[in-house]
Write a structure and sequence with these properties.
Blueprint: E1 2-6, H1 14-23, H2 25-30, E2 33-35, H3 57-63, H4 66-87, E3 91-95, H5 102-105, H6 109-117, E4 121-128, H7 131-145, H8 156-160, H9 168-178, E5 182-186, H10 193-200, H11 217-227, H12 236-245, H13 259-262, H14 266-275, H15 277-289, H16 309-345
Parallel strand pairs: 1-3, 1-4, 2-3, 4-5
Length: 346
C-alpha cells in the first residue's frame, strides 16, 4: 500500500491539485485509490477530532496542543490504512500545503515516518517555485486580496519589510527524513501542475481544475479599493462574496497609489533572487540530483498593470448595470408580493 502526501509548498498550485482530486474522487476510487482531503475529511473514521474538516488546518497546525493532534493524526491514519487494505484500496492521497513549513511539519512528520516503518510505502511530493515569483504571488494573495495586516493597503516594499524567504530548511527537513521517497519538482517548469500530479499518482487522463486563476486588473483594483476601506484585516472571501452578490455599498475615497506602483517592480524581484542565491543553489542541487531541471531565472515576471480608463469604466458600468437589474427585479417581486398580501388582507 502507498500513502502519497503532497506537501505543497504554498503558491505552487496546491488549490488546483486539491480541487482536481476532489472533483475526480469517484474515478480515483474506481482505480483502487482514495483522496483523503486537505485535513483528512474524506477518511471514514466515525469518531472525528475537531480539526478533521476541510478548513481545520488552523486548529491542527497552530491552535491545538502538538501532543494532542499528533496522537489523533496517528489514530486517524492507522484506522484509514487498515480499512483501505481490507477494501482493496492500494493508494491513499493526502494534500495539504501547510505541511511544508518546518513549524508545521513537526506535527505530522514523525507520524508519517512511523507509518512508513510499519510497512506502508509513504511518498512525499513537493513543488518549489522561483523566489521572486512566489513572493509576487504571495503579495497579490495576502497583501492585496486577503489583507492579513491592520491598517490601509500596503505597497509591496512596505508589506515585504522584515519578511524572510528561505525555503531550503523546510525542504531539508523532509528530504532528510524520507530521502529517496521525497520527490522535489520545479513548479516553474511544469505547464499544468494538476496534470503532473495525476501522472505521479497513476491517474493520467482525468480532467484537471485550475482553482486559483488571477483576476483581471480591473477586479484587482476594485478589490484593493474595497479592502483599503478597513483598518483591520480583511479576508479575500469578503470582497468575493460582495462581488458575487453585487451588493450595493457606499465606497468612500482614500488616497491610494495606482496598482502598478503598489506591486513589486522588476528591480524588487531581482533583489529577491540575489538575496536568496544560497537557498536557490541548494535547491537546484537537490533538483538536479533527482533529474529535475534547476530553477530558471531567464524570463522576467510580467508586472501587474494599472487598468486603463476605458477598461475601468466598462468594469464599473457592468457592476452598476447588474445592480440596477437586480434592483428592478427585486422591486417587481416586491410589488407582486404586496399585491398578494393586499388580496389576502381584504
Amino acid at each position: 500500500m502507498k500513502l502519497i502526501v503532497h506537501i505543497g509548498a504554498g503558491k505552487t498550485g496546491s488549490s488546483s491539485i486539491q480541487a482536481t482530486l476532489e472533483k475526480n474522487n469517484k474515478q480515483i476510487m474506481a482505480n483502487n485509490s482514495k483522496y483523503l482531503g486537505i485535513m483528512l475529511e474524506n477518511c471514514s473514521n466515525i469518531e472525528r477530532p475537531e480539526w478533521q474538516f476541510r478548513g481545520g488546518s488552523d486548529l491542527f497546525f497552530v491552535e491545538l496542543p502538538r501532543d494532542e493532534v499528533e496522537g489523533q493524526l496517528a489514530n486517524v491514519l492507522a484506522e484509514e490504512t487498515q480499512r483501505a487494505q481490507k477494501e482493496g484500496i492500494d493508494t491513499l492521497i493526502w494534500s495539504n500545503e501547510w505541511l511544508f513549513a518546518s513549524e508545521h511539519s513537526e506535527r505530522a512528520i514523525k507520524t508519517l515516518s512511523d507509518i512508513q516503518k510499519s510497512g506502508i510505502d509513504v511518498k512525499i511530493v513537493c513543488y518549489i517555485r522561483r523566489h521572486d515569483k512566489w513572493l509576487n504571488s504571495a503579495y497579490l494573495q495576502w497583501g492585496l486580496k486577503h489583507k492579513t495586516y491592520s491598517g490601509r493597503i500596503q505597497g509591496f516594499k512596505q508589506w515585504r519589510m522584515g519578511r524572510k524567504l528561505n525555503f531550503f530548511p523546510d525542504i531539508e527537513k523532509w528530504e532528510k527524513e524520507f530521502s529517496k521517497n521525497f520527490s522535489l519538482y520545479n513548479y516553474d517548469e511544469i505547464s499544468d501542475v494538476s496534470k503532473h500530479f495525476l501522472q505521479l499518482v497513476g491517474m493520467e487522463g482525468l480532467p484537471t481544475t485550475n482553482d486559483n486563476i488571477s483576476p483581471p486588473p480591473e477586479q484587482i483594483a476594485a478589490w484593493v479599493v474595497y479592502n483599503n476601506r478597513f483598518e483591520g484585516k480583511v479576508t479575500a472571501a469578503r470582497f468575493q462574496g460582495l462581488f458575487n452578490a453585487i451588493t450595493h455599498r457606499h465606497l468612500p475615497k482614500y488616497d491610494l497609489p495606482t496598482i502598478n506602483k503598489l506591486v513589486p517592480t522588476s528591480t524588487d524581484l531581482e533583489k529577491i533572487v540575489a538575496e536568496n542565491a544560497d537557498d536557490i543553489e541548494k535547491i537546484d542541487r537537490l533538483l538536479i540530483e533527482r533529474g529535475q531541471p534547476p530553477m530558471s531565472f531567464d524570463s522576467s515576471i510580467k508586472e501587474i498593470s494599472h487598468p486603463d480608463t476605458w477598461n475601468m469604466d466598462q468594469f464599473t458600468l457592468s457592476l452598476l448595470f447588474s445592480v440596477a437589474e437586480q434592483l428592478m427585479d427585486s422591486r417587481k417581486r416586491l410589488a407582486e408580493l404586496e399585491k398578494k398580501l393586499d388580496s389576502i388582507l381584504k
